[in-house]
Amino acid sequence: MMRALLAALTIVLIGCDERTRPLPNSGGGQDEVLVVMAKGHWEGPPGAAVRAILEQPIQGMPQPERMYRVAQCQPKDFSSLLAVHHSVLYCDIGADSAAFEARRDVHARGQLLLRLAARNAEAWLDAWNEQSLDATRSLEAHQRTRIAGRLRKERDEALAGQLKSRIGVSLDIPTGYHLRKLDDGFAWMQRDRVVSGSGLEHHVIEGILVHAHPYFSDSTWSVPFLVDQRDSVTKVGVPGSEPGSYMIVQRSFEHMNLMPVGNAVKLDGRFAYAMHGLYGMHGAKMGGPFVSLSTVDPSGQRVVTVEGFVYAPQFDKRAYVRELEALLYSLRFDEGLAAGAQ
């Protein structure tokens, strides 16, 4: 009885302390997840199962790139600097009861801590197999939220205002982008930078496209339809560096199927359809990954697609694609303008 009272008192005191003590900002490398797991389990089946999911190849990349960079520490070392990591998977093997919970701002502001608990390693593996999809979705959403917060602070208000007045949409486009084209149904914005890497300087291009077409039926929500729609827009609107060249979706290469992958998602509570794939230039040498997001605007009469593409041949593309994806998820509508923009 006394032990239970002391435990309850400890919880109350800790809770009070956490409410009054200001939390530090979260830290850790971009695209990194910290896995807290005992060394014996990390080197055994539980660790292998975690790595198989968190280090799986990202879809729609020209070369294999892992979903996350995974760091690991033992529970006894999860303190001080490690405890403020922005994305934590806490593997509680040997717990009194099974649990899967997502908690925010536990040890730091802007932190997501996923805790998966089970009585033994076998039960934990079963739980991970059931919960890994939800875990990765939570981590992906958290990554987007972190990047989106930065993009809002870097938003180019003048450029965003032009986009809003002509097409009726709002995007958190950061400074550094410039308009290549803008009319009532199409926008092309681009950022050209010279980035250092491996002792050299390389040219990196990031592009944002916004385009719309009439909404007729739910047959819109398929990869073949949206790919054909994209090609019809970029053939006219996005020329390449060589005369007669233009952007296209890469459908295949030799005997490989390169068609984009698509899935239904939620965008600010509304239905949307996301695609990840590869683009190229018909008649020119240029290509890379793209990501797109399509949804019906508040008028119910048109499908608006926002997409980002990157050209960075000397670099991994993961960080660029994640930032572009976060930018696309900032899509919002000015309902009055959207209703009138046909």
How does this structure look, described?
The protein is of the alpha+beta class. The chain folds into two domains: 150 residues, no CATH class; 185 residues, Mog1/PsbP, alpha/beta/alpha sandwich (Protein Transport Mog1p, Chain A, 3-Layer(aba) Sandwich), CATH 3.40.1000. Helices cover 32% and strands 33% of the residues. It is built from eight helices and 17 strands. The strands form four sheets. Strands 7, 8, 9, 10, 13, 14, 15 and 16 form an eight-stranded antiparallel beta sheet that branches. A five-stranded mixed beta sheet has the order 2-1-3-5-4, with helices on one face. A two-stranded antiparallel ribbon has the order 6-17. Strand 4 and strand 5 form a beta hairpin. Helix 3 packs parallel to helix 4. The longest helix is centred in the middle third of the chain and has 33 residues. The chain is globular and about 65 Å long. The termini are far apart.
